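User: Predict the structure for this protein chain, please.
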Amino acid sequence: MKNLSLLWIFVLLLSCAGKEENKKERPSADPGQKTMVKNDSADSPVAQITEVKKDSLNEVMPEDDILFNGKLKRYFSLTDFEKIFGKADSIKLMSEEAPCTYIFENPDGSKDMNDQYLYKNGSRFENTKDKVAVDEFRFINGNYILYKGIKIDAKTTINDLKPIFPNAIRNIGTLDVYGEGKFQVIQLREDSEGISDGHLNLFFKNNRICFMHWWFPC
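Assistant: Here is the predicted structure, written as structure tokens:
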């Protein structure tokens, strides 16, 4: 009986020692220790996609930053047209061409049947009364533009414009122009707010710029 009592006491001591050892091995939370949680919101897929979409938009080419032949903005008088470009090579009523949009529309959306296209050195200008606007501009016979002080002329290549319009150049496409064949084309937005639903197309052939044209949907 004495031996059985001693054995029972020995088992109890072993059990208590095991519990004490478990307490030592279990890590205790330090009340003064802060749990650091990494905030990966900046690196999240949603944030990255949003940023990519924003950065991948084609660039804006505001008409106010363009000077045709280094002198005229997009809108000018008939007198200035003849002073800078000379007399028109040919004139055609716009009603005969029947474009779906006019640059000079009346406030009520109607169109003046006397509005006309002025053609000069391949370029096309819209004319109403004494007002003229550039519709399509050809980089021939010395024609050029200054864009924010940078000269763009018939010698300008796609690579020359890459630092100015990197996204538009990356998204360059191909367009078949009736009677002229295929051109490489970049599209530039008219404003950064997306107010205009039109855009400005720059056309290239053999890697060099040929002409620019303002496009609007019907």
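The first strand starts at residue 66 and ends at 68.
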